[in-house]
Design the sequence.
């Protein structure tokens, strides 16, 4: 039995929705506030049961995009479909199928955790008995049973976020939007949140997650879209993004007594662009593909340099983000 | 955390035994009822608020009656009317007006703490929350009005000439006025979205409205210019109408105009409130 969600599998969404079609699809979405553009021609696709990480700094347009996709604000241009329904023309159908957790835990602090969940289930159309059953189920799944009767005001930050996430799952949404779900959480609460998100996706839920944390996107997201100043500046898997921006490097530390400069000269003759590391011994060579490694070793060998240590450098998502941000500023 | 993950991705039955748990939305009446219950529960669950809610009517009643009764105003009161009788309808109106000003503050809190954002992402009518806020405050006011009347009757011997029926009708009229004003405060909350200016404005508006009216003294007692202001003050009509009904005096013809003014205030305010509430957070 599945507690968190029962909706997505074996049940076709309304509107003649094709199960293979993306659960979230934005095509050229633009949004202007007066004359200020907040989003410009944003397109993205999120297949069923996957996580899209929407990465960007404050003011990049992440929350505006979430607002458009959750039918809270109309787009100024372009179209968006969520769970098979157009957000502009069928907002109510969209709202029946989504869950949203905003940047701040949106729970009613004045009433108990259980009352919060019961209230939401009732608003979604459950009768009193079903609403209570659903609330208890979620409280159990989110480890909040002990605090169920307490006012949400007394909850810790992590508990509040868990209640908030439980709140967005009350109606068994097919798609959930998590807007910076771990901002301000301590490390263990963050880990707990990540595990919950992974569990939801394993159960078939589609997730759009916005984050400023690169490790979070790297860990959770199947694909990542980087937003900067309202535009998509990059998208792809974490590996693709890393390949796109930062280059991989191979670092060779020669046996003591070798002259690294001689090695560099040999590598340049083979068409590489090596440099000597700050310690004065390591030879660092950017490479395009794994097979270049063999060429590098062979060239060094021919120059009489024996490698004592060999290391590969992968760019981190931080490098990707900084490089893209630099590029966006320069443009 | 109790794991509820299916052991293998493919093992999940397409919910033949479990009923599909997507509900198809609730009626507007349910929405309002659920959200009203939520406001009342938040109030009832807070001992501090309940205590203040109980003390406030007592304060209103005793402070006003004890202070004002000592003024020698009896000369201008309608024949056979004690000052307590004269004052009671105004005490009720004043109290209901005070309570209604809190409706707007509650709405601003909802706008700020994320509840409104959550409700907007759900398939419900956005103005349900406004209607619920207004309804829950009406219920709170009604309970407090009953408390004040019972205390006035039991402790101070309030026994107006209009009898039980007159008292009930006058209380209903008062609640109608309060409800209309609560919409004005909801409109303020939905458009301003900040509590501090709202509190300042409500004091700035409500103090003159209450005091430059027929609420606490017969308006003939006021200086000429204040008397003029009092005569055009809509609250004067509300208080006079409520008083006429409770005390069985002439002036019941004022009931219709006060209801009309209240309705007009409510309709215009509701329009502004709904429009303001729609704006992005």
Sequence:
């Amino acid at each position: 039995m599945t507690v968190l969600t029962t909706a997505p599998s074996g049940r076709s969404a309304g509107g003649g929705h094709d199960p293979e079609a993306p659960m979230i699809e934005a095509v050229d979405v633009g949004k202007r506030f007066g004359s200020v553009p907040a989003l410009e021609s944003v397109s993205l696709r999120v297949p069923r049961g996957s996580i899209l990480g929407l990465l960007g700094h404050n003011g990049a347009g992440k929350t505006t995009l979430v607002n458009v996709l959750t039918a809270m604000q109309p787009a100024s241009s372009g179209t968006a479909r969520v769970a098979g329904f157009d957000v502009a023309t069928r907002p109510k159908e969209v709202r029946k199928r989504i869950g949203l957790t905003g940047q701040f835990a949106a729970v009613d602090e004045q009433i108990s955790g259980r009352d919060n969940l019961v209230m939401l289930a009732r608003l979604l159309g459950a009768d009193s008995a079903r609403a209570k059953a659903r609330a208890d189920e979620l409280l159990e799944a989110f480890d909040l049973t002990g605090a169920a009767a307490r006012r949400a005001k007394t909850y810790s930050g992590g508990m509040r976020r868990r209640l908030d996430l439980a709140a967005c799952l009350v109606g068994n949404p097919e798609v959930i939007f998590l807007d910076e779900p771990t901002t301000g959480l301590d490390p263990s609460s963050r880990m707990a949140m990540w595990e919950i998100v992974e569990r939801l996706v394993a159960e078939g839920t589609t997730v759009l997650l916005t984050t400023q944390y690169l490790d979070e996107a790297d860990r959770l997201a199947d694909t990542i879209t980087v937003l900067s100043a309202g535009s998509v500046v990059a998208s792809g898997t974490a590996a693709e993004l890393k390949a796109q921006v930062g280059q991989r490097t191979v670092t060779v530390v020669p046996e003591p007594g070798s002259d690294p400069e001689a090695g560099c000269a040999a590598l340049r003759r083979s068409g590489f662009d090596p440099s000597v590391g700050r310690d004065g011994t390591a030879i660092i060579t950017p490479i395009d593909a794994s097979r270049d490694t063999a060429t590098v070793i062979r060239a060094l060998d021919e120059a009489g340099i024996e490698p004592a240590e060999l290391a590969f450098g992968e760019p981190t998502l931080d490098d990707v983000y900084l490089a893209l941000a630099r590029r966006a500023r320069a443009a | 955390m109790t794991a509820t993950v299916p052991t293998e991705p493919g093992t999940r039955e397409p919910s033949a035994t479990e009923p599909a748990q997507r509900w198809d939305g609730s009626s507007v009446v349910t929405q309002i009822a659920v959200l009203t219950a939520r406001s009342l529960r938040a109030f009832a669950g807070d001992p501090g608020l309940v205590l203040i809610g109980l003390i406030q009517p007592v304060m209103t009643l005793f402070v006003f009656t004890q202070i004002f009764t000592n003024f020698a105003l009896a000369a201008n009161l309608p024949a056979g009317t004690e000052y307590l009788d004269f004052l009671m309808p105004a005490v009720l109106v004043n109290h209901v007006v005070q309570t209604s000003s809190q409706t707007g503050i509650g709405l601003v809190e909802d706008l700020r703490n994320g509840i409104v954002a959550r409700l907007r992402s759900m398939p419900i009518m956005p103005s349900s929350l406004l209607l619920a806020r207004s309804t829950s405050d009406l219920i709170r006011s009604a309970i407090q009005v009953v408390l004040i009347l019972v205390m006035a009757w039991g402790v101070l011997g309030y026994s107006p000439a209009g009898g039980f029926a007159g008292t009930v009708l006058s209380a209903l009229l008062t609640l109608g006025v309060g409800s209309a004003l609560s919409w004005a405060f909801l409109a303020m909350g939905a458009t301003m979205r900040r509590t501090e200016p709202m509190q300042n404005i409500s004091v700035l508006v409500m103090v003159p409205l209450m005091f430059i009216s027929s609420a606490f003294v017969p308006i003939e007692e006021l200086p000429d210019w204040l008397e003029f202001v009092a005569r055009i003050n809509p609250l004067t009509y509300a208080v006079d109408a409520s008083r006429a009904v409770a005390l069985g005096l002439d002036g019941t013809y004022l009931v219709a105009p006060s209801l009309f003014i209240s309705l007009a205030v409510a309709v215009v305010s509701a329009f502004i409130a709904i429009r303001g509430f729609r704006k992005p957070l």
In short: The CA atoms of residues 144 and 159 of chain A lie 7 Å apart. The first helix of chain A runs from residue 62 to 69. The radius of gyration of chain A is 25 Å. The mean pLDDT of chain A is 86.
